Automatic annotation (TrEMBL):
It holds the Pfam family DUF3954. This is DUF3954 domain-containing protein. InterPro entries: DUF3954. The lineage of its organism: Bacteria, Bacillati, Bacillota, Bacilli, Bacillales.
Length: 59
């Protein structure tokens, strides 16, 4: 991921499966669930993503 702070732009690899959060101009990659089946729940507060919950189950 390449970030240009002056222009406030970021370049990401579109070949990588990922989820990102943007908070106050910062790009943050969300951690992927471990093994098996997983989910990511992002909680919003005051119009901004405040935190995320990551869980997984094994089959």
């Amino acid at each position: 991921m390449a970030v240009n702070v002056e222009k406030m732009t970021a370049e990401i690899d579109l070949m990588e499966n990922a989820v990102y959060r943007v908070i106050d101009g910062r790009l943050i990659k969300v951690t992927t669930p471990g093994i098996g089946y997983g989910k990511q729940i992002i909680t919003w507060q005051a119009g901004k993503p405040s935190h995320c919950e990551i869980s997984f189950t094994e089959k």
